[in-house]
Amino acid sequence: MPHPASPYLAEGPRVGIRHFTYEDGAEFTARVRESRELHRPWLFPPETAAAYTAYAGRLIEDRTKAGFLVCAKKDDGALAGYVNINNIVQGAFRSGALGYGAFAHAAGRGLMREGLDLVVGHAFGMMGLHRLEINVQPGNAASIGLARACGFRLEGYSPDMLFIDGAWRDHERWAITTEMHSRRRPR
Hints:
Helix content is about 30%, strand content about 35%. It is of the alpha+beta class and about 190 residues long. The protein has an 8-stranded mixed β-sheet, with helices on both faces. Helix 4 (about 110-125) links the parallel strand 5 (about 95-100) and strand 6.
């Protein structure tokens, strides 16, 4: 009997990751609106159809970006969160900067850890990257916990690094390389 093709680029026991599509707008923006309390003051993902179309378009069309939706397999592929790789540089650098967010219904269930692990594996495998960095505001304990749980190491502190919610915000810099990732013990 033939095996149906998986809709995912990579999958784990509970989640799969796939690229953003324009058709995901309605579910994505609904999940964002449900998750305002979880996201603020750290994240401001698109809440309207027009904002989503512009956001997804950058992830779909710009070669220096890659966007991945984390989908809960048990929930018929419902969006659990997202992971974006921004500022992708090839050549000798072969790196990118990660940004991510969980949706409220999936928060605290370990789905984003599994999804982030899958994105990191995909970035170091199929995408050929060598280093990934996460920049996190120091007060965002959940995001720092996720970075740490996925094997990222704290590398530094950058005052006034990113302009978020009307002000320049300090960030901790967390990073992982393909060598660090390959040394991690399987969960």
